[in-house]
Amino acid sequence: MIEFWLVPIVFLTSSLTAVIGMGGGVLLITLMPGLVPPAAIIPVHACTQLASNVSRAAFGWRAIDPTIIPAFTIGAVAGAWLGGEIYASLNLHWLPTLMGVLILLFTWVPLPLLRGGGQSALAVLGFYQTSLGMLVGATGPLGAAILMQRNTQRDWLVVNTALYMTLNHGLRVAAFAAIGFSFSDYWQLIGAMVVAGIAGSWLGTHLRVLVPQVQFHRWFRWLVTLLAVRMILLPLL
Asked: Is 147 helix (H, G, I), strand (E, B) or coil?
């Protein structure tokens, strides 16, 4: 039952995201290859992250900004459809390599600048995050960059990042079910990971007030880089 090593990993990565607002999903998905079959990596990740983000938004519900929902959802629905079509045509043996390459690009290549945090930028964000999320699972910091143009307060950013990622992961779970992925085959693992994710969100929410707003990104980028290189090499071993 080697895949159940993912349960404590989910707890730790969910706690990290609740504290700093990003990063946990990327770390989790870079550790999943080798623990679950390639075809299950992104669907199981999406299901687990859905629960983690729902709980993180719920624990900080006072900071929720519902005005970001409509435009993001429109873009995300289109993105889920396109990403599902591409995913269904992939050779899943090489999926970890593709994911590793894309994660390296998201980590080190400057993202295109979307000016403003208005409704059009949110729609583009929804399309980008959801379509590429169907292929790579975790899609980098573009969302945080857009939301920071609306509000830079950490609690607002953490909670509303969780809100839009709830929509993102919910649509992706629905898309994977529609193209035939059987979540029931992994119900025990998913259930344990969901519980761990919620517990991590609870702990991280309470730790957030104790952790200063320091710069985590430098060490985080190198850690993600090492794990992404492992993903790229794994199908070759």
From this structure: helix
Q: Annotate 125-145 with DSSP letters as a single string.
A: HHHHHHHHHHHHS---THHHH
Question: Which residue(s) pair with 36 in the sheet?
Answer: 33
Number of structural domains the chain divides into: 1
What domain range is 67 assigned to?
7-33+41-236
Paired tokens of 92: 């899943």
The pLDDT of residue 21: 65
Q: Is residue 153 part of a domain?
A: yes
In a domain, 1, yes or no: no
Taking alpha carbons only, the member of 129, 45, 104, 78 closest to residue 228 is 104
pLDDT tens per residue, range 13-56: 888 878 776 677 888 888 898 899 988 999 999 999 898 889 88
% residues pLDDT > 90 (the chain):
24
Q: What is the pLDDT of residue 22?
A: 66
Q: Which residues of 50-78 are buried (b: 16+ CB within 10 A; e: fewer)?
A: bbbbbbbbbbbeebbeeebbebbbebbbb
Which whole number is the average pLDDT over 119-133?
Answer: 85
Evaluate whether residue 2 is within a structural domain. no
Burial 7-33 (b: 16+ CB within 10 A, else e): bebbbbbbbbbbbbbbbbbbbbbbbbb
Whether 182 is in a domain gets the answer: yes
Residue 116 has what pLDDT?
Answer: 55
Exposure on the CB side of residue 42, measured as CA atoms within 13 A: 31
